[in-house]
Each structure stands twice: as structure tokens, then as C-alpha cells.
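Bench notes, afternoon.
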Amino acid sequence: MQTPKWLRRAVGMPGTVSFTGIEPSVVAALSLLPDLASLSSPEFLHRAQAFDGTRPEALALAADASSRGLGVVPFREQLRAAAAMLDGFAVEMDTGEGKTLAGALAAAGHALAGRSVHVISVNDYLARRDAEWMRPLYAALGIQVAAVGEASTTEERRAAYRAEVTYASVSEVGYDVLRDRFCVRDDDRVDPRMDVAIVDEADAVMIDEAIVPLVLAGSTPHDEGDTAQAAAFVRNMTEGADYVIDAEGATVGFTDEALDTLEARLGGVNLYASAHIPTLTALNLALHARVLMHRDVDYVIEDGELRLVNTSRGRIADGQRWPDGLHAAVEAKEGLQASGSGVILDTLTVQDLLLQYPSLTGMSGTMLAVADELIEFYEVPCGRVERRLPQARVDEPDLLLDTEDEVFAAVAAEVERRHGLGQPVLVGTQSIADSEAVAAKLTARGLELRVLNAKNDETEAQTVARAGERDAVTISTQMSGRGTDILLGGADAADHDAVAARGGLAVIQVGLYPSRRLDAQLRGRAGRQGDPGVSVRICSLHDDLIVTTATRTIRAQIDSPAALTDRARQRIVRIAQDISEALRADAHRATWGYNRAITRQRQTVLAERRTISTSDDLLGERMGDIPGLEADDPAVTDAVREIALLSLDDVWCEHLQMLQSVRDGIHLRALGGQNPLDEFHRLALAEFDGFFDRAYADARRLISATGAVDVAAALAAARQRRPSATWTYMVSDDPLGDAASRAADSLRAMWAGRRKGR
């Protein structure tokens, strides 16, 4: 049973923060507005530049700047949210309540106080759009604003980070931090100033994507032979005879007969001999790619390029890759030219990046559901700002059917019925395949519709904005992070009253999302700003989420659906989402635990890098005496410094590769009764011992490689070892699983037992 809200607040549980203590600041700010409104633009600008640092005046100045620059008078609720963010709280505001403006008010308040602010978005489009949208507000205050995007040049990035408020996606800030980390000269850095971060869609960025590593990679030669051969070998294999899939559909393996055949085709080799393990790995990856990775669900092909789909948003994951072996295997499966693997130079998780900001806050429509994790991982409390107008949306009971075919038929019938009433309909699906299946059924019934999925997200803003038009039927994969409100009557709300009279926007969810937050985000598209609306969820007992999380008892129940009451069906759905959310949280904790060792060691290496970059004396101390070296020559000192820095980078890359190898096999330690996490930390510490001795010894060897000191030749050799090109990408959650996902069956059993004992 859920703990009552009053009791949660009484004991101070996460997510129960009351913003009543902020109200006096809001009241004081509102009292200042008439005086500010009487000022001319130059007088107002002078007042802003003479800001005295009080919270109410900051809110009042930002609010009046919104009126002057945007022609929008902020609601009291938006001022309350901005005040909460200025105080360091994360804020939950419902969809359509004006989070973008609230975030800008908070950013302006920080900038007026002399802070450097990054407004973190989920993608480049929103970063650019919001920076331009809010620019007149900032201009009225004399605050510089800029945006960073994937196409920004080095000079544009450097200039953008000098602005007082910078809008950027979380990945672009992370990539800039990674690239700066490898710069030898200060002039080469773009230097993002990590001071204040205000994160939009904060639950998605700070929790869902927290452990996603941002990767800086360097070019290496790539051999496509093994990958292409492996793809050819598995192409015509059949289930049962050649391979078997586990009950959860998460792993696939060769049968003994198939392995015998493969060994014969390869010339009678033993695939389990150490010399042939790389070939066996390539074959397993090829099989996984062919059987378990699905086009238009896990990835799409655009212009001859493999592009991943972000499963939490149902959209293209720009610049994202799977671990290199699997990525190459899927490319070979589809007959695409291999994109190359490269060597990982450094990685940085989104969570590690955000923790570099001394002041961190954020906003979302579904923050309270992750309040515990925000405290656990960031020490950021959160609370809710209630809606300006009462909720008028009607959330209808779930329709829980037996099969997927029944679901699609029911969705088509419901859309057709509501369309006949002139009501706009938004259908939310989880995958491209589902969106296209629904679209096919609706088209067959003669309905005109718009489809918004990962294949055409460049037109998303226009499509989303028009979803509230009379008679509109829109199909979308995941609405989180779309960043555009759905106004009844269309983008200009010209037909608002007529659409409201027909019941407002109807949201139909197809299938189960892995968390209740995603359900809420989709439902929240209806009933904006007190408008009428309706939502309904239609799913089957054989939904992927239920099948992959079901205990043995639940599997037996869904195989005999006729005996299930509505209450029992609801319980099955509830348990599936409970387990899914628990697995995600446990995976977050496990990955965070493993990353702690790597993060601490990275910080140690970066501190050493800064030390030798700024001190000739400490550089000399680290490198020691090198006979024949002209230590007093500034040019020689600069060359030695660069050689030392490049050697530190090389040894760090080798150390990262070693840690990844340890991590890949660390779960096997559990078979010997050892704690894998403890063992990983022990091995990481042991391998890091002597790190700097190895790096500086390598630098000294380069300098004396020819038997005589030749700093110029040594520097050329050190530079030659660095990759000629670098690129960045995000590593998706490992489809092959990690220590946490391998324990999923145990967790399901424990969870089932825990619920049974309640």
C-alpha cells in the first residue's frame, strides 16, 4: 500500500518538499512589479545591472523582462518554480505549465547574481529553440545568451561558453569536457564553465540517462573480414536446430550441432581454444545481431547508415553506438559498410558530468517518482508546483486484452470512434514497428493521419503542434522531450473552443511503458492548462514488458487468461512495471558503483595533468634528470611537458582498456563466492598502482630512444602515437547485459516473494 502523502511529508520522505517557505519571496517579487513596469527600457536595464542580490528583486526583474521581451506575464506558479530552482530544488510541473519560461526565470536570476549558467536540454533542437525563444528576456536584462549544438565550431563553442547563459544538450557539454581533457595547450580548450546547471526533462537526463557513457574515441585501422564472415555463417540458421533463445528473449546461443558445423567450416578448428576465442566472439555477436536486434525497433537505416533508437523516447539517438563489436555485427547483418571501431580515449557518464556543477537543479513533469534517486545520487531535493488550473482530464480504466492482435484492433476501433466525434487523437506507441502497425490499420480504415517516429523527427515540432487540431490523428513514439505543447485547435489555438466542446485531446497509449513516469508523460499531453481531455491505456497480457518480467506463477496465469479477473490483470500489469522500475534502479546503482573507481582515478590523472601543465619545477621533479637535456631552454621544457602529457594520456587509454576487460568478466567472481563490485575495486586499485611511474618512464624512453637526447624527434614520435582523428558517441545500455541484468531472474523471484509476503 502506498504511504499517505501527509505521512510522507511528516517524516520528510523524498519528494515531499513543501514550497510554502518560498512563497514570501514570490509575494515580495510580485509587489515590486508595478514599480519596475513604470521604468523606461534604459532605466530598467540600469536597474538590472545595479542588482543588489536579493531573491525577490531577481524574480521581479526576470518577470518584468519576460513581459518586456516576450510579451508574456509569468504566472505565479512559474515564479514559484523559478524561486525553488534558485534555492537548489528540482521542480515537478505538469506538461503545459510553462517549464521553459520558469527555467529561464531561474537562469536569469542566477546570471544577475554573477553566476555562469548552463541550461541543459535533451537534444540540440531544444537547446537552439529555447535559446532563441528566451533571448529577448535575457536581452532586456543585459544578459548574454548563446547555444551550443553538434554543428558548432570550436570558436563558436568557446564563445558560447563565455556567455552568461548557455543552452546546450547534455551530450555536447560532456563531449566538450572530454575533448578539453586531452588538450595540451590552454588555447585549444573551449572550457565550459561548470557553475550552475538547470536541467530540462531532469528525470530523463539525471536518472534514465545517468549511467550512459559519453565516449571520446580515436581512429584505428578496422578489419571487416571476421565480422562479414560471421554474418554470412549465421544468416540462414534456424531456431531450434542451430540456436536457442532463452525464455526472456534476452540471450541466444548456438546448439552443439551448430558449433560442430561451424568448426568444420572453419577448417576443423576448436572454437574454444584460446587462439580462436575472437572468432567465437564474432560468431556470437553475429547471432545476437541477427536474432535479437530488430530493425525499426532497436535501430533504423538512414542513407546507408545504422542509427540507434533511444528506447525511452522512441527517437533517433544521435551520435550513439552500441559496444563496438555488436555495432559492427548489426552493420554486417544489414550489409552496410562498417563504420570502424577505434580506441576509446576516455569516457564520462552523464551523472559524473552533472556532479561537476556546484549548483544543480532541474525541472520535469514527472520528478517526484524519482525523488529517492535524486537524493541518493545527487543530493538534490525536489517538490511539486501544483497546476494553475484544476485538472479536467479524464483517465479512463485500462483496457487489458489477451493478445497483441486484439490490442491493435481495439486501438483502431477507439481511434475511429473518437475521430468520428471530431476529437483530435494522439496515439502513443513504444516502437517504430508498433507505430507503423497502428498506422497501417488506420489507413486501411480510410483515416488520414500523421506519424511521428524516429524516422522523421526533424519535422516533430510542427507535427506535435498540430496534434490538437480538430479531427487530427497523430501517432507518436514516446512524447518525452518533444518540447512542444499540444494546443487545442492547432498551433495558433484558433479552433480551441470547438475542439474543447468535443472533449479535447484524446490520448491512447498502446502497450506498457517500462515506468509509470513514461505513462504519465504521455497522459500529460491531454488536459493542458485546465483544458478537457481523456486518456486510456490499451495493452495485452502478452505485452513485451509482462513477458520479460513475469514470474513462473504469472506466466501460468497469462497462459490461461479466461480465468483472470480485471483485478488480477491489473495486478499483473502493476507487478511488471514494479519489477521493471526496480531493475532499472538496481542497474543504476550497480553501474554507479563500478564507475566510482574509474572516476576517482580519472580525477587523480587530471589533477596530475594540471600540475605539470602549470609548474616547470614539478614537471622537472616528475621527469627527473635526463642526461644531455637542456633543462634551462624554455622550448625544450615545453616539448618535454607535451611529451609527458601525451604519455599520461596513452597510459590512461591502456588503463581504461584493462578496466573494461576486468569489468566484462567480473560477474564470474560471484561463482567463487566473491563480491564482484568489491573485486573490481580491488583489481582497479592494484592496476592503478604505479600508473604515474609507468607514464613518466615511457616519456623518458621516448626522449632517449635513439641513445642520444633528441627532444624534437621524441615529440614527433609522441604526437604520431595519438590518433589522427577523433569522434564522439554515446554507448547504449549494453544489449548483451551486465552484472545487474544477469541477476534479473533472481530479482524477479525475490520481488515476487516480497510481494507475496505483504
